[in-house]
Design a protein that fits this description.
The protein has 140 residues and is of the alpha+beta class. 25% of the residues lie in helices and 31% in strands. The protein is built from four helices and four strands, in the order βαβααββα.
């Protein structure tokens, strides 16, 4: 079993702006990812962490899943992206995950970290982290 990430979580929640923080921690999936020949044929474990700043919808106080950003939908979306087939770059995978999150207009910012867990034997992991914003909030 892989160790969990030692990366400290972000603190995105903001009461003044009605922002809540949705996160997915240490999701480990087997992926066909990488530019090397052997990475095209054999799945390898990747650890995925996602932090999402979501604008709270205050107009309906009822206790309904439809009133919030559902992390389960994002987990299923990540699994779907990974299952679609080989991806050359971890950056591409991170962008696809970020775009999936940003498809919901309530998402202001998403940060995605992808770690390959068995690439460098001397390191626990290697990878990248990206941050993306809603197109409408980039100019702000």
């Amino acid at each position: 079993m892989q160790k969990s990430s030692k990366i400290q979580p972000l603190h995105l929640a903001d009461a003044n702006r009605s922002i809540y923080h949705v996160f997915i921690r240490d999701l480990v999936l087997e992926a066909l990812i990488g530019v090397h020949r052997h990475e095209r044929k054999k799945r390898q474990p990747v650890r995925i962490n996602v932090d999402i700043a979501v604008l709270a919808v205050q107009n309906d106080p009822r206790d309904r899943l439809s009133n919030v950003f559902d992390y389960e939908t994002i987990v299923e979306g990540i699994k779907e992206i990974v299952s679609e087939g080989h991806i050359n770059l971890v950056e591409t995978l991170a962008d696809r995950i970020a775009n999936r999150c940003l498809a919901d207009h309530r998402v202001e910012t998403v940060r995605v970290r992808i770690e390959k867990l068995e690439v460098v034997t001397e390191a626990e992991s290697v990878g990248i982290e990206i941050e993306r914003k809603q197109p409408s909030s980039i100019a702000e």
